[in-house]
Amino acid sequence: MNDYDVPDGIDVLRVFCGPDGRHGNALGVVRDGRRYPDNESRQALARKLGFTETVFVDDPERGNVDIRTPGQRLPFAGHPLVGAAWLLDLEVLELPVGDVFARQDGEFTWITARPEWASPWTLERYASDAEVEALTEPPPGEGWLYVWAWEDEAAGRVRARAFPRGDDSIDEDEATGAAAMLLSAELGRALNIAQGRGSQILTAPAPDGTVEIGGRVLLAAKG
Q: What letter does residue 114 receive in the DSSP assignment?
């Protein structure tokens, strides 16, 4: 099961897997955050692992977690929190921005969050899903870019890809919960998003301005 070269004590999950159980975005989870007690050690490990995000669990009972990319700390991110909620089996995760509520629904794990907690993404609509599919490299420019097109507008089915463009030396993000949440909030409707090589993200906006983000989580490596 372990195809990842990670230190002991780190689980690797795949979050937002497709219906066939493949793909999803790899996530490193440090089950005991005390092993990496300061900012420097955490950032060094996140760089070494090279995942788009790594989560350090500081209190597994309260759901207090710290999210890192290879280059920075994030106050909020979608796929790390969906993964952490699944792994820790919690109903609430505590973040500096506020409490994130979680629930399990069959094969899907859901979190509820506010769009304003997410890092800024530029959402760019393409004319067709074929144009999104045809991209062979990140579009020119700076900043985090989420390109999308309707596969079936009536059904809320979207094709999307995410490009951090210069952030953390990651060319493309396989599955991006925060960007999916922003798109769902902007469109004001529930979405079924196919992102990257074959990941699936579900969203559902609520009247209070929050958005639920859901997906499948699988354990890829046990640390």
A: -
Composition of the chain by helix, strand, coil, percent to 5? 20, 40, 40
> Residue holding tokens 């921005």?
97
R_g over Cα of the chain: 16
Give the separation between CA 144 and CA 122, rounded to whole angstroms: 6
What is the percent of the chain with per-residue pLDDT over 70, rounded to a whole number?
97
C-alpha span between 120 and 117 (Å, rounded): 9
Q: Which amino acid is located at 102 in the chain?
A: A
For residues 17 and 4, give the distance between their C-alpha atoms in angstroms, rounded to a whole number: 17
**Strand 122-125 relative to strand 108-113: parallel, antiparallel, unpaired?**
unpaired
Q: Give yes or no for a contact between 88 and 22, defined as CB atoms under 8 angstroms apart.
A: no
Please tell me the distance from the alpha carbon of residue 190 to that of residue 65, in angstroms, as a whole number: 27
The total of other beta-carbon atoms located within 10 Å of residue 38's CB is 8
d(CA 223, CA 219) in angstroms, rounded, equals 10
Question: In the prediction, which pLDDT does 191 show?
Answer: 98
Q: How far apart are CA 51 and CA 221, in angstroms?
A: 14
Answering whether pTM is above 0.85, one says yes
Query: For residue 100, which amino acid is it?
Result: V
Separation between Cα atoms, residue 86 and residue 116, nearest integer Å: 23
B/e letters for 108-129, b = 16+ CB within 10 Å, e = fewer, are bbbbbbbbebbbebbbeebeeb
Within 3-77, where are the H helices? 39-49
Structure tokens at 161: 């890809």
